[in-house]
Design a protein that fits this description.
Organism: Belnapia arida
Family: Belongs to the FAD-binding monooxygenase family.
Number of strands: 20
Bound molecules: 3-acetylpyridine adenine dinucleotide
Largest sheet: 8 strands, mixed
Protein name: NAD(P)/FAD-dependent oxidoreductase
Structural class: alpha/beta
Keywords: FAD, Flavoprotein, Monooxygenase, NADP, Oxidoreductase
InterPro entries: FAD-binding_Monooxygenases, FAD/NAD-bd_sf, Flavin_mOase-like
C-alpha cells in the first residue's frame, strides 16, 4: 500500500479567485511575504463573472468605480469602454490584474473545496478538495463571493423537460443559441431584467414568468467619451475618497435633502432628472428614501407611473407595476429597455404570483392558469446568497463543530469577519458586513486590507491565532439587526437579503445596513484599540 501523500502546507489558503481572492493573494504574498495558495473551482479567474455569462450580463456599478483603487498605476492604466462594464470586459480586467501582479502561479484552478476542518492541536486548517487532495494552512480565508450558489427552484418535472434549461449563474461558456426558439425566463430580479431584452431580440418568443414585480431605472449605458476617461484617470485620489466615504461605496454622494424639503412639482422634476441620468444614483436623489416609508412612496409612485407610460398594453403594465415593496428595499435593478421589451409582439408576461408554476412538463411550464410550450427555460432565480457559498464547503471549527450548526438559526459572527469557535478563519464580504449593499470592490478592498493588517499585527506580536468572543458576536448580531431595522430594507419580505428566496432558509437580514463608511470606521477602531472582542493567542 502506498502511503497517502502528505498534505501540502501553507501559511494561508484562500478560497476563490474573484475580485477578493486576487487582492487577498497579492496582499498576503507580496506585502506580508506569506506562502499562500488560492483554490478556485473555475478554470480561470473572475469569480462571479466567470460563471455569470448570461445574455446581457453587465455590472450595475459604473465602470470607473468597478475596479480596484489600491494601486494608482493600475487604476490609471486601465480604460473602460462603456458606462457599465460588460461581463467579457470585466473578465479582461481581472485577467489583466492577475497577470500584471503575477498572481496565477499561486492559484490552483479547477479545484473545488468540499471540506475544511480546524485542527486545534496543530493550530491549522485542513482543506479537502473535490479530487481528494488535502492542504493545510494556519489561516483560511474565504473569498467565495456572496452570490455564487445557484438557486434552481425544486420544481416537479424538471428532469423530464424535453428542451434545455439553464441557470444564469452557471451559464455555458459556449453561449446559448435562442434563434427560432420558444424561451421561458423565470425570475425578475437584476439578472432577469438584464437578460430579458437581449433574449427577446434573439428568440422566436419569450415568456417572462414574474412572481414578484420589480422596480427598474434605466441604465442609459453608452460608450465613455475620451474626456470622461481622461477625467477619471486624473482623479484617482478624489474618486477613491468619495467611494470610501459614502454609505454604498459608489462614486456619487447622496443628496442631503429630504423628500419633504421640496414641493411636489420640484420633487417630480428631481425624479425626472434622476430618471434621465439613470442608474443606481436614482436612489441618491433624497437622503430619506430608505428610511421613511412615505418618502419612499413618492419615488415608488413615480417609478410605477413610468412603467405605465412605457408599456402599451394596460393589463401588462398593471401586472408589471403591481409592486408590493418599497423602492430599493430589494436590490434595485437597472435596465436597458426592460419595460419596453413587453411592447414587442414576441414577448408575453406570465403572472406566476397569482397562478404559480405547478410543474415543468416535457413540453414546457404549466402554471395554475395555463400551459406554456417551451424549447428553452432560463432560470434567473438568483442564489442561496451570502451563507450558501460558505455552508456548502462543510467548514468545521473547534471540536468538529460545523458552521452549518453554528449558523442553524442564521449567520452569527463578529464584524462580518470571524466566527467564535473557528480560529483564523476570515470571511471576505460575508454576512454581517456591508458587502452586497455596497459597490463590491470597495467592500472587498476594505476587508482584504483589514484582514492583512490583522494577520501582520498577530505575527508582529508573536501570536498565532485570533477568533472573536461569543459576547462580541452577540453584540454585533444586535448591531446588524438594529442597522437593518433602522431602514425599510426588511420590509421586502421576499428579499434574498433576508434569505427569503430559498425555502427553509432562516429569515435573518444578512448584510450590515449601517453603511460602508460607518462600518469601516468601526473596523478601524477595533484594530486601533488592539482588537477588543477578539481573543488573540499563541
Ligand atoms: O436574483 P434575485 P438575481 N418561481 O434573487 C424569482 C446581483 N446582480 O440573479 O422575488 C418563480 O434578485 C424571484 O421571485 P421572488 C444583485 O445583487 C448584480 O436577479 O423570490 N420565480 C426573483 O424575481 C442582485 O440582487 C448584477 O418572488 C422565482 C428572481 O427569481 C443579485 O445578484 C446583475 C422562483 C430572482 O431574483 C441577485 O439577482 C445581476 C420560483 N420558484 C445580479 N424562485 C449587476 O450588477 C425565484 N424566483 C449587473
Amino acid at each position: 500500500m502506498t502511503p497517502a501523500p502528505a498534505a501540502r502546507s501553507f501559511d494561508a489558503l484562500i478560497i476563490g479567485a474573484g475580485f477578493s481572492g486576487l487582492y487577498q493573494l497579492l496582499c498576503l504574498r507580496d506585502r506580508l511575504g506569506l506562502n499562500v495558495q488560492v483554490l478556485e473551482a473555475g478554470d480561470g479567474v473572475g469569480g462571479t463573472w466567470y460563471w455569470n455569462r448570461y445574455p446581457g450580463a453587465r455590472c450595475d456599478s459604473e465602470s470607473h468605480s468597478y475596479n480596484y483603487t489600491f494601486s494608482k498605476e493600475l487604476f490609471e492604466e486601465w480604460e473602460w469602454s462603456e458606462r457599465y462594464p460588460e461581463q467579457p470586459e470585466i473578465m479582461r480586467y481581472l485577467n489583466h490584474v492577475a497577470d500584471r501582479f503575477d498572481l496565477k502561479r499561486d492559484i490552483c484552478f479547477g479545484t473545488r473545496v468540499v471540506a475544511a476542518r480546524h485542527d486545534e492541536a496543530a493550530g491549522s486548517w485542513t482543506v479537502t478538495t473535490e479530487a481528494g487532495e488535502k492542504l493545510t494552512a494556519q489561516f483560511l480565508i474565504t473569498a467565495v463571493g456572496c452570490l455564487s450558489t445557484a438557486n434552481v427552484p425544486a420544481l416537479p418535472g424538471l428532469g423530464d423537460f424535453a428542451g434545455r434549461w439553464y441557470h444564469t449563474g452557471q451559464w455555458p461558456h459556449e453561449g446559448v443559441d435562442f434563434r427560432g426558439k420558444r424561451v421561458g425566463l423565470v425570475g425578475t430580479g437584476s439578472t432577469g431584467i438584464q437578460a430579458t431584452p437581449v433574449i427577446a431580440e434573439a428568440a422566436a418568443h419569450l415568456t417572462v414568468f414574474q412572481r414578484t414585480p420589480n422596480y427598474s431605472v434605466p441604465a442609459h449605458n453608452a460608450p465613455l467619451t475620451p474626456e470622461f476617461r481622461q477625467w477619471v484617470r486624473h482623479n484617482h485620489a478624489e474618486l477613491r475618497r468619495i467611494m470610501q466615504s459614502t454609505p454604498n461605496g459608489h462614486p456619487f454622494v447622496i443628496e442631503d435633502r429630504s423628500v419633504w424639503d421640496v414641493t411636489a412639482e420640484q420633487r417630480q422634476a428631481i425624479y425626472e432628472a434622476a430618471w434621465a441620468k439613470g442608474g443606481l444614483q436614482f436612489r441618491a436623489a433624497f437622503r430619506d428614501l430608505l428610511v421613511d416609508k412615505e418618502a419612499n412612496d413618492t419615488a415608488a409612485a413615480f417609478l410605477k407611473d413610468k412603467i405605465r407610460e412605457i408599456v402599451k398594453d394596460p393589463a401588462t403594465a398593471e401586472l408589471l407595476a403591481d409592486i408590493d415593496h418599497p423602492y430599493a428595499a430589494k436590490r434595485p435593478p437597472i435596465d436597458s429597455d426592460y419595460f419596453a421589451t413587453f411592447n414587442r409582439p414576441n414577448v408575453t408576461l406570465a403572472d406566476v404570483r397569482r397562478a404559480p408554476i405547478e410543474r415543468i412538463t416535457p413540453a414546457g411550464i404549466r402554471t395554475a392558469a395555463a400551459e406554456y410550450p417551451l424549447d428553452i427555460i432560463v432560470f434567473a432565480t438568483g442564489f442561496d446568497a451570502m451563507t450558501g457559498p460558505l455552508l456548502r464547503m462543510n467548514i468545521e471549527g473547534r471540536d468538529g463543530r460545523a458552521l452549518a450548526e453554528a449558523w442553524e438559526a442564521g449567520p452569527r459572527n463578529y464584524l462580518g469577519l470571524q466566527v467564535a469557535g473557528f480560529p483564523n478563519l476570515f470571511t471576505i464580504t460575508g454576512p454581517g458586513s456591508p458587502s452586497v449593499l455596497c459597490n463590491m470592490p470597495v467592500a472587498i478592498e476594505q476587508h482584504v486590507e483589514w484582514i492583512t493588517d490583522c494577520i501582520a499585527r498577530l505575527r508582529a506580536d508573536g501570536l498565532a491565532r485570533i477568533e472573536p468572543t461569543e459576547a462580541a458576536m452577540d453584540d454585533w448580531v444586535t448591531q446588524v439587526n438594529d442597522a437593518a431595522h433602522a431602514t425599510l430594507l426588511p420590509q421586502a419580505h421576499h428579499s434574498w437579503y433576508l434569505g427569503a428566496n430559498v425555502p427553509g432558509k432562516p429569515r435573518v437580514f444578512m448584510p450590515y445596513a449601517g453603511g460602508m463608511a460607518r462600518y469601516r470606521a468601526i473596523c478601524d477602531e477595533v484594530a486601533a484599540a488592539g482588537y477588543p472582542g477578539f481573543m488573540r493567542g499563541a
